[in-house]
């Protein structure tokens, strides 16, 4: 889940209060943007948090490949 400083704690609280809506907490990945401005940061955030490697996402992501972000 992509969150921001404004929404991160509320989102975490909502998930905890609702038992992660039937999912295991380990199934939910939270990534907090420093400055929310749409989904433009998503590729670099996925890389910098290690989720690309964890999820085994190929480097064929257009923006990541264009910006030469290693996967």
UniProtKB/TrEMBL annotation:
Matching Gene3D superfamilies: Spore Coat Polysaccharide Biosynthesis Protein SpsA, Chain A
PANTHER family recorded: UDP- GLUCOSE PYROPHOSPHORYLASE (PTHR11952), UDP-SUGAR PYROPHOSPHORYLASE (PTHR11952:SF9)
Gene Ontology MF annotations: UDP-N-acetylglucosamine diphosphorylase activity
SUPFAM superfamilies for the chain: Nucleotide-diphospho-sugar transferases
Any GO BP annotation: UDP-N-acetylglucosamine biosynthetic process
InterPro entries reported in the protein's UniProt record: Nucleotide-diphossugar_trans, UDP-sugar_pyrophosphorylase
Name of the protein in question: Uncharacterized protein
Residue ranges the record marks as coiled coil: none
